[in-house]
## 1
Amino acid sequence: MERSVALDLYGRPVPLNLPWWVWNMFGEQGVFLLTRGGGK
């Protein structure tokens, strides 16, 4: 996982600077940027 963002009910980013596992309490949706493993 390279990047993630929690979104509120209206699709706006949740303005929290907390660990990702705390976002679950405040976000309605999550968007993740994933890459394949295996080195570069």
## 2
Amino acid sequence: MNFPENVKYSSDHEWVRVEGDEAWVGITDFAQDELGEIVYVDVTSEGETLSQGEVFGSIEAVKTVSDLMMPVSGEVLEVNAKLDDAPELVNRDPFGEGWIIRITVQDAAELEQLMSAAAYKKFTGK
């Protein structure tokens, strides 16, 4: 199980990697492992500004569908187009090519509410 140190983690199992005033968001290695084989990623919030904790889309696995939650408030700038044809990238590389959205960060203070890798590892019991 992979717990990169360069991202912050939400209790909803999303990660956020900040670079300047933009950030990339995806689901954690733990989350993709729990969901199983990802077959579809549905994000229709491109161009919208959403608050921390709001649903920005959904992710469908063979056995279940799960909401995707904003780890921090921001505008959804881009959806990872590669996932249209290859949703399994979320399983293979959740912190790299399997990112889901790119956002602008509206309130950097919200990042302090998220977990470090060590805290998230403890949260998941892994």
## 3
Amino acid sequence: MRQQNGKITVIRYSEAFKLAMVRELEREGQTFEAVRRKYGIRGSATVQLWVRRYGNGSRGKVIRVEKPDEIDQKKQMQERVRVLERTIGTLHVELALERAYLEIACERAGIADVAGFKKKAGGRPGTGR
């Protein structure tokens, strides 16, 4: 967008122009900033966005290089996360069952206020105080 005399002018680029610019950038190996200045594009990240969208993947691609022990460590951590997630799931099921059993026990014992029963001495029977 450009503002002149209080009016905002929106600049739109055609798909063909974007593709041609990305091909030129990839072919000649110029920087994003150089191409942006050459064509007078005002947005600082516009060319990068076009390269990500229309490029062949040779620019802006992140390549991660790892040592073998780092790869093993990553696998171990992923397995640990899986184990912890299963454990959490099991604990949620156990908690739900415990709550249901407590409600049933309170209902059978004639206790209407389950929350009050849980608060009183941590849910244990009275200690005779």
## 4
Amino acid sequence: MRKLLSMFLFSVCTMLACDTYNHPSIPYRKVDFTIYPNDVMYYKLNTYGGYEYFTGGVNGIVVYRLDEWTFHAYDRACPYDWEAHESWIKVHPNGIMLIDSVCGSVFNILDGNVISGPARWPLRKYNTRYDGQSLRVYG
């Protein structure tokens, strides 16, 4: 019985570990915070296409609001060479791309995939959960 329970717990832990995205370039940093997008403090997240920068992760986090219920959160560390320079991913002035002005890599704001530049890997994406009041960013 004890052996069966041990095997079950090992299996559950293994399955939960598989749920965490293992980025090939950016190291894992635990992220777990909650914000209230309807609060005036986060007024930029009150509109579709709005974004805010937060601390956490490797080089900070950018949260982008796609529509009423959909938010995307990415680490601001560029997967090209995040250790060699102080690269900070920023939202491009056109509002539909993310860019690292140091290496020139450009990423799609909807999925974090590379559009152009030397980066070969997408941005590290964090999970988001919105209940209409609070937004949890975690991963």
